[in-house]
């Protein structure tokens, strides 16, 4: 049963501008961004995209457009989002992501068409031919709408369980294992030009589950099933990158498949220490290097951009800090691990891609006289040769000072520890440029000045 496919109407340029979907390009050179470095390698560097921050946060859009040449819808192309009720399609969120990608020259990877999870109950309750018809109709309608707009699709997602056997899902129970081959055949007819992928977790290393995938894919190819690629999701724990990753990529590539690392994040017990963030950098670099080293590996996608919107803390209690940008969109060491693996220029020594000292801080305080209060002025100077794009300043009060009022930054205090994050209008500091921020405070006994400051996690000199 095939229904009429509604075609997507792209937004006009004026509408894209009004919606904030066209983002001006960064002044950084190509080799100083993930996107530029990946373009030089001919690789996809992608990010999973959530509609909330895409609609509401300009910094999210800026980073997404500057650092990534590909996007994957985190949730809005899953069955429960696109067709929550039978025959009733909701395109708005998926269209928003496709429109953003097109306006910023990015490829789109579709995720996902046939999956046992995040599929509505009305589908799971179908039997036999009715379920077959629903699968065919859904694939045809979705891929037909985005034909020419979505470059590749996860056609079947996670069909093998952790026991290395075909998952006993409702698809398997009603349609048998042939549903996998049938889904790919339908997908090829729906959009002959799209790349068709199978995708799963815990298969990035050589193990029983990835061996089962090797056998499954080999059998599908022998049958003439049109499968073009396999996605290794890459949700990892700190220090747990499989040593066999590169060899595993290579053996699937030798089958003639494209391979992508499709959903990378590396979670850490929070709060993460500096040494753990450095280890995370090494882990990211190791994973991306494995892809770069094999001709058949065509791309890497992180499952999100910023720790602010990561799925990890909601799913793994006490863990987080899994992505290359922190909650304030500062580049973490992980960012530079990816950049270095892609052959890009830059060093994390100062948080902005330069090897020299990044910053100087001049702190001065004027007591009010007679009252245990004071006004403090903090001048931050970029002493590096590159632009600081987004900053977080941290220091610790030596005494019992408490901030009572503040300006020109988003200030917070926990005990003696103080954090100031840029306002919307002063996040960029060019080379040899300075900004001033400040606050009012109170104290009980004395008011000694803090002596150590870090900017984006790296130490600054003091003036």
UniProtKB/TrEMBL annotation:
SMART domains: CBD_II, Glyco_10
Record-linked Pfam families: CBM_2, Glyco_hydro_10
GO molecular function: endo-1,4-beta-xylanase activity; polysaccharide binding
SUPFAM superfamilies: (Trans)glycosidases, Carbohydrate-binding domain
Catalysed reactions, as listed in the record: Endohydrolysis of (1->4)-beta-D-xylosidic linkages in xylans
Superkingdom to which the source organism belongs: Bacteria
InterPro entries membership: CBD2 (IPR001919), CBM2/CBM3_carb-bd_dom_sf (IPR008965), CBM2_carb-bd_dom_sf (IPR012291), GH (IPR017853), GH10 (IPR044846), GH10_dom (IPR001000)
KW Hydrolase (keyword) present: yes
Residue intervals of the GH10 domain: 28-341
Broadest EC class assigned to this enzyme: hydrolase
Documented EC number(s): 3.2.1.8
Keywords: Carbohydrate metabolism, Glycosidase, Hydrolase, Polysaccharide degradation, Signal, Xylan degradation
CBM2 domain: residues covered: 352-463
GO biological process terms held by the UniProt record: xylan catabolic process
Signal sequence region: 1-30
Stated family: Belongs to the glycosyl hydrolase 10 (cellulase F) family.
Name assigned to this protein: Beta-xylanase
Species name: Phytoactinopolyspora halophila
